[in-house]
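Minimal example, chain plus phenylalanine.
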Amino acid sequence: MKQRIEKLTEAIRSASIQTPEELEAFRIEYLGKKGALAELFEHFKEVPAEEKREVGQLVNQLKNLAAESYEHWKAHFESVPLASSAPVTDLTRPAILTPPGAFHPLTLVKKEITAIFTRLGYTVSEGPEIEDDWHNFSALNFPPEHPAREMQDTFFIDKNPEIALRTHTSSVQVRVMENQKPPIRTISPGRVYRNEAISARSHCFFHQVEGLYIDRNISMAHLKHDLYFFAREMFGPETRIRLRPSYFPFTEPSAEMDVSCNICGGKGCNICKYSGWLEIMGCGMVDPNVLENCGIDPDIYSGFAFGMGYDRIAMLKYQIRDIRLLSENDLRFLSQFVSG
Ligand code: PHE
């Protein structure tokens, strides 16, 4: 009996089944009413009493093995379509189209600004969002304890006054000046952080493009030229600009640049608060102290810098009334920017 069980075990293990018909034959041979297992059970009563326990176990194991093999092959034939059966893929069905993606409105505006300055010969520089005090403040002529540091409500990291989330991308310009020799013509787009109350008009993070141009004999006239060119390219050929005196620790003189409101054409509307002008950026001649801090000789070189928040520009361009929409990832909002 034991020998017979061994032989059957071996036969079941090595059975190679190619078709469902062969599987059915397997079932009948081993598991059928008159199959090998039924026969074994039939003969079980002849097994001497002292061997019953052991042989019983072996027969049961064999039965399980046969049943498992059967189930295994059955599942196999159910999952694999046979060459003769209908093809699984119906090639005549219409394709399932992948919905087109969209650039985020901030990305669209950044690309547009970058393309304009690239045409003027500017390169694009990037830097870290977590900055040290030197690159965000000290090198830019913010003396320690100077109230100007308070102008930009800073998020410090772990209350460490040395490490903060950058409050502007001027920090990238410091890095460029430290590592490159003039002439330098570069813009730095990126995300910046300020601890401000979140509302429809302001957020605790937003996006800037800052620019820097350093060479011999650079003057305010060059600044005006490049920014006027930018304004007309960005907002239309009719656009006018005006510069108003302002203050930044890192530029002297400093100015605020306004563009004529492209919604009302300068006549006055609720977007420009009936002034006809939209304030879009700060700018000025790089303070000689900043050049010196970054290893550039201010007796030989001069330059200008500017910086603008482009969330506001995106809002003006696409008439978005709440800045929070730009960071909420709401597909109903984002899918409006799908092009083509
Ligand atoms: N860094 C300034 C800001 O964040 C903008 C600026 C850049 C102003 C360069 C002047 C020159 O507001």
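The pocket of phenylalanine is lined by residues 168, 170, 210, 248, 251, 282-284, 305-307 (CB under 6 Å). Residues 49-79 form the longest helix (31 residues).
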